[in-house]
Amino acid sequence: MKTIRLTAAQAMVRWLSVQMTDDGDRFIEGVWAIFGHGNVAGIGEALHGIGEALPTWRGQNEQTMAHAAIAYAKTKKRRRAQAVTSSIGPGATNMVTAAALAHVNRLPVLLIPGDVFANRRPDPVLQQVENFDDGTVSANDAFRPVVRYFDRITRPEHLLTCLPRALSVMTDPANCGPVCLAFCQDVQAEAHDYPESFFEPRVWRIRRPEPDSQEVAEVVAAIKAAERPMIISGGGVLYSGAEATLAEFVKKHGIPFVETQAGKGGISFEDERNFGSPGVTGSACANDLAARADLVIGVGTRFQDFTTGSWTVFGAEDRKLVSINLAGYDATKHGALPVVGDAKVTLEKISAGLGEARFDWHDPQARTDWHETVRTVTAAPNHAGLPSDAQVIGAVQRQAGPNTVAMCAAGTMPGALQVLWQATAGGYHMEYGYSCMGYEIAGAMGIKLATPEKEVICFVGDGSYMMANSELATAVMRKVPFTVILTDNRGFGCINRLQQACGGAEFNNMYRDSNVAIQPEIDFVAHAASMGAHAEKVASIADLEAKIAAARGRDIPSVIVIDTEAVSGTGAGGHWWDVAVPQAGGTGRLEKARARYAAGIARQRVHD
């Protein structure tokens, strides 16, 4: 057997550089890196040596580098991914939040934090977290609950098994998610004689698991027995590439559909059977559909509480649940009749079993009325005062083209965009599985890197911008252009509204209600400009529309700041959400909130 002598770090990056997709691309496109004493000498040297065969990109924060990598993988529909490396200690634990985000959203990212010395000679090393009861534990064990696969590399030859396992998880459509390979810093630099065959290129194909024929037959029978079936289209439809298949399915069988946050934009809003989104931030026509459906067919969705209105939106007494999903864990939730299989293949088989069966029970006028409502609440204001978030969305919508991707993650805008944004096919990107504040700017960069031909428009509130904005500088340095719409309502307006809806007093959300000596006047334009972005503030909706159009000609990020009011919310649609209200104490307002909460609980149907 021929061997080649390499350090463990050199072997890792060489192996990653030859893991290919069936399109001839590297599956791991490159590596985001912030170096420290836990990875600079080993992984840093190896990445420098391999050069453009596995490119390295410098970011500003480990969490947001990982967010960019996750957004890239989501945009690529999980068919390509990126890696992120950090030092030990805070550099590593900064990535735990991003790992949780990827885990919840079932998205692949390879996390390679440095770790303590395997030989333990210099213990405790700088930034080492010592467990008094377990000598094998390090800070990196915090990744275990939030990754799909965890391994600690304590010997150079461990790469021979852990690297293939890592890629098998990241390319498995049912088990896909983040992987953490905690790489002991002394082991990174240790040499080993690796088999040359280990570095031969390998192609990783995303399989399409076929559904069980009996499960398909049971679902076909359930649909034929239904009078009012509806479909909930989730992110699994996009990852399967089943958008056209679903569009043909609903057309052939006359079944209306709605979209989750992850599934929105799979099929254009213009499709006559697309009734928008259901649940807490759903459209009126979608929620009316859900209330009357006697068979709810989930395709590639995990039935998150926003989708189900905390299990109150499906109101028909006789309703049943079907779940088509690659993951058996998701397919069997809430007593659903499961079909475990790829969305595209499964829909094709179910359609064949249905033959020419049609239903056509939905009300087209409800959809038309809803679109008119959206136009009304998103129209430019005809009065003095600050615009609402809905009116900002309207301005962007009027300027959007078929190539525009609207993206967001947390605060008011995700719910407002789900209910109001009219997405063309491929024109929507929302991180709402984890709803992670700070994802927005890094995520926008990741989307643009994945689809440079698209116009990426990032919606971010002042609160989320303050949490994580530093990758704006990275985007400037790399000339990655996108447009940031920064809505400033001077606090956490979304949670302030929720606080009041739950009977609480306005407290610690808006700056005016916080324990501060000076009310801040943050100059977001100056801040963004200091990082090299093109930044300006607009005073009106009309000015906002003009600045969006002007941003298209730039090769760096553009940040457009607009002051908004924090009271209105979306202005349309919506449904009840289970947020527990205190059972004792408080004011008359709290008692009214408890009564509303008790009424919502009474409508929940969780296990039937």
Automatic annotation (TrEMBL):
<protein>
    <submittedName>
        <fullName>3D-(3,5/4)-trihydroxycyclohexane-1,2-dione acylhydrolase (Decyclizing)</fullName>
        <ecNumber>3.7.1.22</ecNumber>
    </submittedName>
</protein>
<dbReference type="InterPro" id="IPR030817">
    <property type="entry name" value="Myo_inos_IolD"/>
</dbReference>
<feature type="domain" description="Thiamine pyrophosphate enzyme central">
    <location>
        <begin position="216"/>
        <end position="350"/>
    </location>
</feature>
<dbReference type="InterPro" id="IPR045229">
    <property type="entry name" value="TPP_enz"/>
</dbReference>
<dbReference type="InterPro" id="IPR000399">
    <property type="entry name" value="TPP-bd_CS"/>
</dbReference>
<feature type="domain" description="Thiamine pyrophosphate enzyme N-terminal TPP-binding">
    <location>
        <begin position="59"/>
        <end position="127"/>
    </location>
</feature>
<comment type="similarity">
    <text>Belongs to the TPP enzyme family.</text>
</comment>
<dbReference type="Pfam" id="PF02775">
    <property type="entry name" value="TPP_enzyme_C"/>
</dbReference>
<dbReference type="InterPro" id="IPR012000">
    <property type="entry name" value="Thiamin_PyroP_enz_cen_dom"/>
</dbReference>
<dbReference type="InterPro" id="IPR029061">
    <property type="entry name" value="THDP-binding"/>
</dbReference>
<keyword id="KW-0808">Transferase</keyword>
<dbReference type="InterPro" id="IPR011766">
    <property type="entry name" value="TPP_enzyme_TPP-bd"/>
</dbReference>
<keyword id="KW-0378">Hydrolase</keyword>
<dbReference type="InterPro" id="IPR029035">
    <property type="entry name" value="DHS-like_NAD/FAD-binding_dom"/>
</dbReference>
<dbReference type="Pfam" id="PF02776">
    <property type="entry name" value="TPP_enzyme_N"/>
</dbReference>
<feature type="domain" description="Thiamine pyrophosphate enzyme TPP-binding">
    <location>
        <begin position="411"/>
        <end position="562"/>
    </location>
</feature>
<keyword id="KW-0786">Thiamine pyrophosphate</keyword>
<dbReference type="InterPro" id="IPR012001">
    <property type="entry name" value="Thiamin_PyroP_enz_TPP-bd_dom"/>
</dbReference>
<dbReference type="Pfam" id="PF00205">
    <property type="entry name" value="TPP_enzyme_M"/>
</dbReference>
<dbReference type="GO" id="GO:0102481">
    <property type="term" value="F:3D-(3,5/4)-trihydroxycyclohexane-1,2-dione hydrolase activity"/>
</dbReference>
